[in-house]
Amino acid sequence: MAWVESLQKAIDYMEAHLLEPITIEDIAKQAHVSAFHFQRLFIILTDVSVKEYVRRRRMTLAAQELASSDCKIIDLAYKYGYDTPEAFAKAFRKQHGVTPSEARKGLGKLQSYNRLTIQVNLKGAEPMNYQLVERKGFQIVGVKERFNCDGDLGLSLDIGHFWTKVGKNGTINRLLGLNNGQISGLIGASVDYSKEDNEIEYWVGTEYKGNIPDGLSSYQISAEKWAIFEAVGPVADVVPKTWKKIYSEWFPSNSYEHGDAPSLEVYKSPDPTSPVAKTEIWVPVK
Fold first, then answer.
1. How many CB atoms lie within 10 A of CB 140?
2. Average pLDDT for residues 260-283, to the nearest whole number?
3. Sorted alphabetically, which keywords does the UniProt record give (predicted)?
4. Is 110 helix (H, G, I), strand (E, B) or coil?
5. d(CA 182, CA 226)
6. Rounded to 5 degrees, what angle do the CA atoms 270, 283, 245 make?
7. If you ran DSSP here, which 8-state letter would residue 130 be given?
8. Lowest mean pLDDT among 48-62, 119-133, 182-196, 219-233
């Protein structure tokens, strides 16, 4: 349960420094993971980004203070991290549906987002199919692009568009023809995070033994122990659900921590929308 305690420590850190200009790196250090891994973990478990959680909590506290004090709106704007009353009013209205002035007059209803507390259900009502495999390092070849991490929905859409592009230009068929490694199928992986520009490097590739083919790049996966989880059904539905179960049920009830290599999503079926589509999620563990 140390993993759960680390995550709660990071959330408590956010709450304690909610009105300060904290960075994702500051928060992630509390959970002893990288900034990118913490953001991914947070979105999987809560369905919102770290940035959005902080914004919602600030606007919740701002509404409470607005209703219970005679503090000037311009002072509240600065207190909650906004350079102008206009920017503050825009963010306030986005969450509460009313302006700060209307809220002070008691018009409309305010929307409160409570402080997060991690609670883990260890009943294990539904079994998770997985296997542990130790592998030496291996190579994937494929294509890559960098994507900005601001806004979880936008990132998902961008990656989806990338898959569509490589499908239309023939890259997917080419990769499937090259596939000659132990992992059978296409691999999706986020292999690098840059905190300077808040971007990830995302790959569409396949395991391949041999010289790098023209027009493709290669990435070396380090030797790791892997927990491999099986997901069956439409990819857009079952993969997010499986990720959530991995972090909310499997990790808290096991002694493993996330390893140093990137996690891999392995797509084994030609039709990702099929009710019997097979996907494997490879998570490095230690």
1. 25
2. 94
3. DNA-binding, Transcription, Transcription regulation
4. coil
5. 13
6. 85
7. E
8. 119-133
Position 140 scores a pLDDT of 97
> What pLDDT does residue 150 have?
64
120, pLDDT greater than 70: no
What is the distance of C-alpha 255 from the center of its chain? 22
Specify the amino acid at residue 117.
Answer: T
Alpha carbon 179 to its chain centroid, in Å, reads 28
Q: 108 by DSSP, 3-state: which? A: coil
Tell me how crowded residue 239 is: count the other CB atoms within 10 A of its CB: 20
Q: How far is CA 21 from CA 16, 39, 51, 63, 191, in A?
A: 12, 17, 11, 20, 28
| Rounded Cα gap, residues 246 and 227, in angstroms | 10
144 touches 212 (CB < 8 A): no
Q: What is the pLDDT of residue 119?
A: 64
User: Nearest-CA neighbor of 165 among 202, 132, 211?
Assistant: 202
Which residue is listed with tokens 């010289």?
A: 211
Say how many residues make up the chain: 286
H/E stretch holding 271 reads none
Q: What is the pTM of this model?
A: 0.80
| Average pLDDT score over residue span 97-110 | 87
Is it the case that residue 198 has pLDDT exceeding 90? no
> How far is the C-alpha of 131 from the C-alpha of 256, rounded, in Å?
13
Cα–Cα nearest to 231, from 280, 159, 161: 280
Residue percentage of the chain with pLDDT more than 70: 93
Q: Name the burial class of residue 194, with classes exposed (0-12), middle (13-18) and buried (19+) by CB atoms within 10 angstroms of its CB.
A: middle
Query: Rounded to 5 degrees, what angle do the CA atoms 246, 202, 53 make?
Result: 55
Burial class (CB in 10 A: 0-12, 13-18, 19+), 170: exposed
Q: Domains of the chain (ranges plus CATH)? A: 2-104 (1.10.10.60), 130-285 (3.20.80.10)
